[in-house]
């Protein structure tokens, strides 16, 4: 049974992640459900949820996109169907039909692409499909949300009668309108609408001459609104028919409600499924936004999270255009507890929260932003003590609260527990609190619990160095700039850089020296040794990076040489083929020359023709017979090769032209020389000054001597 305490989820800001996940839901019910996500209680549930999320995220990167799962909530309809003698409106039936169609589409899709989404297919296959319900609803309710005319014969007859009466109403009204207009009983506006009924706008003086019922008058009283008598009679008939229609519609809806009522459980299951699918979709979209993956999950209690990003920090920095530094943590039965030390603001707490948050996310079915080679495990319990937990209401100091937490840790810690403690041992006297913290840590160690703690206490660093299954780690610090590097280095404790940071912040050196004298000499030496080791480690890392870069360059050069060698080999083969072809042609030429000499001597034509025919036959016997189709194919191939070669040649020519254009830089205009300018010859080093200028010639004074030089041969050094 997996348990993660609510206090731990609060410490690692799990609810903030849920709020970000909820924003990706496309339904209100999905958003509400996303905010209630909690770590699953069994390993099977965790693995099932992770598989669902991983399959959904894969649909974003392939051509088989999962159909839309958006729906209108049917909670009200489900409640009404549970009430006896209740009936649904047409809009409710539309929602029920829509949700049935969505489930049918999803079932059909997942069945078709079961190979891609096996887990999601299994998830939807448990639902019963109700195609007959959709058919029944469609036969009664149209797409506009009205009951169809042909739903029943009675309704069809009533609506036919209604349409007929409406036609008679319009006809009788138009007849009265024409008659009274011709008698000049009507006002200029002729007609109006009162209480949704067409009425004649009769001049007040003629109201007694118009037969019908008075429905009102204008504000001035000059116009009286009268419904003609014949129209009024038809209107009464229409009201009766509309009442009968309404009764028939209600009867049909009640009948349809009774038809769908037995399937209320399935409707509720449909909605629950779509809400959960919406949450899976939101998890996948959130995973995509933080570059999350499903790492390998083992049962051997090996936790190897490589390049793990804090998701909240990643999103925040991404928005602001800042870089986020990943961390790598390794825990296993031979290295169960890591003690992280180093200066404040170096990233210790963030590293702690990163591991806790990623583990809670993973055990809640969320993918995590780690390297694809990460290999992690699941823990039955995650407990934490992070931040200042002073409680004013319970009259507890920070240290009292921490002792209560340690008591809880001692009750719950075992080999399947991951504990996270920030600033372990603080809140009391450094020596006494450190001793108690050391005892607690030994107890956690003996119970084979897994954990990560941050501390400044030297005794905890020493303990981590002494115990075989515990390891020191430090947040690296640049010793020159005294700025944090936000990088975790496993294997050695970190210095707090107390005096260095104080010096950087302007504290006088004399005061720092006095402070150093007040503490034990061994402590200073221990801290200084740690700081020195950190510096050496930093240098080694730089050297390692340099060696890797050199190795990369060498590999690149080796690949280039191999490529050149392959090209040279190919050229040699081509030259060999050309040489063989030329040798054959030379041999043929010699043969032909011998035959020509022979004919020159004896002038025997028949013998000449026989020799030539024999030579041709010998050559043809060496050739392979090919069909016209093969010849055509070979010619096409040669043509294709020629075109490709021409294209390559054209590209090379264009590149050379572009390079020539770049190489030809516009010459700068030559400066106009004046008397007094300091100049020198283009090919010389000696600098002199111009004494006089005349007809493109300049007399240049070099101090010891003067010379007459052409101006074009001089360049300006200084005005």
Radius of gyration: 47 Å
The major β-sheet equals: 7 strands, mixed
Q: Write down the overall mean pLDDT.
A: 84
Catalogue the unreliable spans.
390-395
What does the secondary structure layout of this molecule look like, with pairings?
Layout: E1 3-4, H1 6-11, H2 14-22, H3 28-34, H4 43-58, H5 75-81, H6 90-112, H7 118-125, H8 131-140, H9 153-182, E2 186-194, E3 197-203, E4 212-217, E5 223-228, H10 229-260, H11 264-289, E6 296-298, E7 303-308, H12 311-320, E8 327-331, E9 337-341, H13 348-362, E10 375-377, E11 381-385, H14 398-412, E12 417-421, H15 430-446, E13 450-454, H16 458-466, E14 470-477, E15 484-490, H17 498-504, H18 509-518, H19 521-602, H20 605-622, H21 628-663, E16 678-681, E17 687-694, E18 697-701, E19 706-710, E20 714-718
Parallel strand pairs: 1-11, 6-10, 9-13, 9-14, 11-12, 12-13
Antiparallel strand pairs: 2-3, 3-5, 4-5, 7-8, 14-15, 16-17, 16-20, 17-18, 18-19
């Amino acid at each position: 049974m997996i348990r993660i305490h609510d206090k731990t989820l609060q410490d690692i800001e799990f609810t903030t992640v849920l709020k970000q996940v909820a924003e990706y839901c496309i339904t209100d019910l999905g958003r509400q459900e996303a905010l209630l996500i909690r770590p699953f209680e069994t390993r099977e549930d965790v693995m099932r949820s992770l598989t669902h999320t991983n399959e959904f995220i894969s649909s974003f990167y392939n051509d088989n996109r999962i159909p839309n799962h958006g729906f209108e909530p049917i909670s009200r309809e489900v409640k009404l169907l549970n009430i006896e003698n209740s009936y649904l409106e047409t809009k409710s039936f539309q929602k029920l039909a829509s949700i049935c169609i969505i489930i049918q589409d999803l079932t059909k899709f997942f069945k078709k692409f079961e190979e891609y989404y096996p887990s999601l297919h299994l998830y939807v296959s448990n639902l019963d499909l109700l195609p007959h319900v959709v058919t029944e609803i469609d036969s009664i309710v149209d797409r506009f949300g009205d009951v169809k005319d042909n739903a029943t014969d009675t309704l069809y007859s009533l609506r036919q009668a209604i349409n007929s009466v409406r036609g008679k109403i319009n006809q009788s009204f138009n007849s009265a309108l024409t008659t009274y207009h011709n008698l000049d009983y009507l006002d200029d506006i002729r007609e109006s609408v009162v209480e949704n009924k067409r009425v004649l706008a009769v001049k007040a003086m003629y109201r007694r001459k118009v037969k019908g019922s008075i429905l009102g008058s204008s504000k001035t009283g000059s116009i009286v609104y009268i419904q003609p008598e014949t129209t009024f009679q038809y209107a009464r008939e229409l009201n009766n028919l509309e009442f009968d229609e309404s009764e028939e519609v209600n009867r049909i809806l009640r009948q349809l409600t009774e038809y769908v009522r037995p399937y209320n459980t399935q409707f509720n299951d449909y909605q629950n499924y779509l809400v959960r699918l919406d949450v899976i979709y939101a998890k996948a979209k959130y995973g995509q936004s933080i570059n999350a993956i499903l790492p390998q999950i083992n049962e051997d209690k090996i936790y190897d999270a490589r390049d793990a990003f804090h998701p909240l920090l990643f999103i925040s920095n991404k928005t602001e255009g800042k870089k986020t530094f990943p961390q790598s943590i390794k825990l296993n039965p031979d290295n169960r507890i890591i003690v992280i030390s180093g200066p404040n603001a170096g990233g210790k707490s963030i590293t702690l929260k990163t591991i806790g948050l990623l583990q809670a996310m993973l055990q809640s079915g969320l993918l995590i932003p780690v390297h694809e080679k990460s290999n992690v495990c699941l823990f039955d319990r995650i407990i934490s003590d992070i931040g200042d937990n002073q409680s004013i209401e319970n009259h507890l100091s920070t240290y009292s609260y921490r002792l209560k937490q340690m008591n809880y840790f001692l009750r719950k810690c075992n080999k399947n527990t991951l504990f996270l403690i920030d600033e372990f041992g603080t809140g009391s006297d450094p020596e006494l609190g450190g001793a108690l913290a050391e005892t607690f840590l030994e107890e956690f160690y003996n119970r084979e619990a897994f954990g990560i703690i941050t501390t400044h206490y030297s005794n905890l660093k020493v303990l981590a160095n002494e115990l075989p299954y515990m390891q020191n780690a430090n947040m690296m610090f640049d010793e020159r700039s005294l700025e944090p590097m936000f990088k975790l280095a496993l294997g050695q404790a970190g210095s707090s850089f107390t005096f260095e940071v104080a010096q950087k912040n302007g504290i006088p050196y004399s005061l720092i020296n006095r402070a150093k004298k007040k503490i034990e000499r061994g402590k200073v030496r221990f801290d200084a040794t740690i700081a020195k080791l950190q510096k050496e480690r930093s240098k080694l890392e730089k050297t390692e990076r340099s060696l890797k870069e050199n190795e990369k360059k060498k590999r690149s050069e080796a690949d280039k040489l191999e490529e050149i060698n392959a090209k040279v080999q190919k050229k040699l083969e081509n030259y060999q083929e050309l040489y063989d072809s030329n040798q054959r042609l030379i041999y043929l030429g010699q043969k032909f020359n011998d035959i020509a000499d022979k004919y020159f001597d004896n002038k025997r034509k028949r013998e000449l023709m026989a020799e030539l025919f024999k030579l041709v036959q010998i050559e043809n016997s060496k050739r392979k017979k090919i069909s016209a189709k093969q010849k055509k194919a070979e010619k096409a191939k040669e043509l294709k090769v020629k075109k490709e070669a021409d294209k390559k040649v054209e590209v090379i020519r264009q590149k050379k032209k572009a390079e020539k254009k770049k190489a030809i830089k516009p010459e700068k205009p030559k400066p106009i020389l004046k008397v007094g300018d300091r100049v020198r010859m283009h090919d010389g080093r000696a600098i002199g000054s111009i004494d006089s200028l005349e007809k493109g010639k300049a007399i240049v004074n070099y101090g010891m001597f003067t010379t007459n030089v052409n101006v074009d041969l001089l360049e300006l050094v200084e005005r």
